[in-house]
Write a sequence for this structure.
């Protein structure tokens, strides 16, 4: 599978994580993101590190991606020493183009006049 990250993405973290993926876990991560059963909240991002909280219907998991290590506090990651679906969901989520990030919303009067930040 060829992966072409967005030029502004953190490709040095995301591509190695995805290429280490077990196909079954990758499919679960993709399904979870598309169906909304997994939600990803990036808590910290820098040049060499991504931290995120991944939630399913019952729990949340702390995921950390660096160039050398992928960690998650789920049982799959801790006991099987594998790249779990939560870590893959973070890598997929972080690889989206910036254009898909939430747009800035302005406060408006009812007549459409912008109150802030225009
Ligand atoms: Zn996990």
């Amino acid at each position: 599978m060829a992966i072409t990250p967005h030029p502004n993405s953190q490709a040095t973290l995301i591509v190695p994580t995805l290429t280490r993926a077990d196909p079954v876990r990758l499919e679960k991560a993709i399904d979870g993101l598309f169906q909304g059963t997994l939600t990803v909240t990036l808590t910290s991002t820098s040049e060499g590190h991504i931290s995120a909280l991944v939630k399913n219907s019952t729990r949340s998991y702390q995921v950390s991606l660096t160039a050398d290590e992928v960690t998650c506090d789920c049982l799959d990651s801790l006991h099987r020493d594998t790249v779990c679906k939560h870590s893959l969901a973070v890598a997929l989520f972080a690889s989206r183009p910036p254009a898909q990030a939430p747009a800035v919303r302005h406060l408006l009067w009812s007549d459409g006049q912008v109150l802030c930040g225009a």
Notes: The chain has a mean pLDDT of 85.
